[in-house]
Amino acid sequence: MRIPKPLVVALATAIAAPAMAASNTLVGWAMLPADSFSDGPTSGQMASGNPYGTFPPPYDDRQPVQGFSAVLPGADENSFIVMTDNGFGARENSADTLLRLYSVQPDFRTATGGTGKVGASDVLSAAPLARFSHPSRLTLNDINRRLALPIQADYRFYYNDGSKPPVDASISFGRLLTGADLDIESVRQDKHCAMWFGDEFGPYLIKTDASGTVTRSAISLPGVYAPHHADVVAGRATANLAASGGFEGLAINPRGDRLYALLEKTVQGDPAGTLRINEFDIEQERYTGRVFLYRLQSPEHAIGDMTAIDDRRFLVIERNGATATQGEPFKKIYLIDTQAVGSGGGVRKTELVDLMQLADPHDLNGDGQRLFSFPYVTIESVLPLDSRTLLVINDNNFPGGGGRERAADATEFLKIRLASPIAGVRPAYLQRDKQLRRCDAPKA
Question: Mind listing the UniProt keywords for this protein, alphabetically (predicted)?
Fold first, then answer.
């Protein structure tokens, strides 16, 4: 898509409004330690450790419960469904890492109590579990051979390379999907209970049923090709999107019939520092051709997540790659609006939360400070819990580190009370309850 010159000029005016004056406040905090694992095939056999020497791979008969890149409401108001991304950060080192969603139950530390720990829970009932075991998770699979893409389960050795370890029998038998097959960074559930995943390798949209089983072939974004797209690999197309530049954000409207897929990097030929938001019709299973542009505060920034408030307003996490141990962190949440913006135009953008400047009057994370900062490299999950409260979670890039200290990063769960409410937000657990009733309703 070429952006007409008048719209390029218009984009220059679509910059962020000043931050809200009053303080946003940390009202809940919980932490999942870096060394949190679930059962599964051995992982990390092709991965490298962090430079700090903490929790080096491989992980025998274990899968890391880490790298959360998306969050959905759970089976009750105290639980959440979190999605792991492709594993160890690249296609080349994640072939033994399963693509999973886990049900978690944070016991938030608040002004009145709470342990600050994050436990496992049953993905269907939200009942607490002693560990991250089978009832706590969904594992993506292509048991019905719908993808039409080669996956690790098709090979005898990882990457079809005899110098690599043999593909685990559980991956082959269940045709389980791994981080070398897809780089999923976002997920939403539609009004029919199907799940849609945003991938970065294609970029593709991947559709599964409610159990995580793929139900159709991968859907490409017309005219956009990342280096790992099947057509680029086969020589039928030329890449015009950088690696890891695909669907980092994926929002769904309240009716559950439209997806809004936000790329992480700029398509070649688009204005520098702009990212496409592509509208997708769930009923027709095709893109509508409607596109909006999100302008980054700086071209070297990236986005972490995109969540719908309604049909026109969305929350977007924008960040740079700096941390508390290196550089000057930029980590913010913006409210964007597409009202009266034509296709190809730039969205209006207002700063909502500076994640490096949160009031923490009760020192919930126990660092001795009354000002809380969230300096992790990647922060990739935001969920409105009600009109005044956001849930925010970092992706710890396990076993990477350096977010707060020179060690493997933990995963922190934040509840943030907004200085000013967002009108029209329906509480997350009520949305989930409505969704479950709709899914369970008899089909005509």
Answer: Signal
